[in-house]
Amino acid sequence: MHSKQQLIRIAAIAAVAFASLLPAPLLAADVEKVLYSFTGSDGSIPYSALIFDAKGNLYGTTIVGGTNGAGTVFELVSSKGKWTEKVLYSFSGGQDGAEPFASLIFDAKGNLYGTTAGGGASGDGAVFELTSSKGKWTEKTLYSFNGQDGNEPEGGVILDAKANLYGTTTLGGTYGDGTVFELTPSNGKWTEKVLHSFNPNGKDALFPEAGLISDSNGNLYGTTYGGGTNGAGTVFELTPGSKGTWTAKVLHSFNLNGKDGIVPEAALIFDAKGNLYGTTTAGGTHDEGTAFELTSSNGKWAEKVLFSFNHPAGSVLYAGLTFDAKGNLYGSTYVGGAYSYGTVFELTPATGGKWTEQVLHSFDPNTGDGLVSTAGIVFDKSGNLYGTTYEGGATGNGIVFEITP
């Protein structure tokens, strides 16, 4: 059903072909450990970032694999230094959904929420909830998209203070170019409302692949990999108004000027000052992706490229960024690095507003390591980094890894 897996494999093959022409990067001193290798029957191709619960257990999704081959939700539990994986739910590929690309979120009661790019009642994707009782998890489809109200939600959902869910669909809507939606609970049922259908007839954003973030005023922010003034993708904002209306605004249209990034596919993050940070899959000085910042002044947003990636530093950023307590940024690249199979990197602010990149780990195909990461990085309380890779591991189905600085 879905072509994205094939497209990103093409990117990997192209990057690997040029690996021998480039010098290997200088690696930082780190210790990377494979915590778990997926086997296929318990999930395959973990695409998204992990989340922690209060006990330090990890949760995530795999696009395919599981009992029915339609993807899974899994948990990893640590005991005495060993991690045990448990499949919480295997999607059937029917009305319950298929191909969960996105990360999960918890609500205050410990229930999990996520999306599937396929499946659902019409085959256009779904939003689901997983609830736990006596160690068993039950899945419920909260909403199935029908194309007109959205199609292929590849980003996750976020919750507001009233327990409403917000998210995006890559396709569908009035014009077929994606939507932003809201799901509202009432008496055990959920009602969907399209807040915005992206419009190809102007300079609107098109094709939002990542989830949203919100500020303290309830404004929503996201990225699209198409549309904008130059057709190279955007950062957009949706502002709530009176009577339930929302206004969409493009904050930045990425430029085809050989310096700016293009085609952003990851979610944004805020810093403490309300500046936005994100990544692009291509563009920049080497046309291999960028990390960027957007700052606001008097209602206008200015974009700055923090770092242009190249093959030794890592290439093609499908994952977003994560801050540590000191203001350094972390992420992963799909390809590039010492072995051309992706990296985990750190960006450190330097004098004069510049940022310095350091490769913390290059994924190594010769050691049973994971290969090609599309997921962001999360930290535990001790400052260790955790993530997933799309492929690699003992059986080639992807891994969960830990990096100890």
Summarize the entry for a quick read.
By secondary structure, this protein is mainly β. The chain is built from one helix and 34 strands. The strands form ten sheets. A four-stranded antiparallel beta sheet has the order 1-34-32-31, with no helix packed on it. Strands 2-3-4-5 form a four-stranded antiparallel beta sheet, with no helix packed on it.
What do these coordinates show?
By secondary structure, the chain is mainly β. The chain has a single domain (4-17, 28-404), classed as YVTN repeat-like/Quinoprotein amine dehydrogenase (Methylamine Dehydrogenase, Chain H, 7 Propeller), CATH 2.130.10.10. The chain has one helix and 34 strands. It has one helix spanning 4-17, and strands at 31-37, 51-52, 58-62, 72-79, 82-90, 105-106, 112-116, 126-133, 136-144, 158-159, 165-169, 179-186, 189-197, 205-206, 213-214, 220-224, 226-227, 234-240, 246-253, 261-262, 269-270, 276-280, 282-283, 290-297, 300-308, 322-323, 329-333, 343-349, 355-362, 370-371, 378-379, 385-389, 391-392, 399-404. The strands form ten sheets. A four-stranded antiparallel beta sheet has the order 1-34-32-31, with no helix packed on it. The protein has a four-stranded antiparallel beta sheet with strand order 2-3-4-5, with no helix packed on it. Strand 2 (51-52) and strand 3 (58-62) form a beta hairpin.
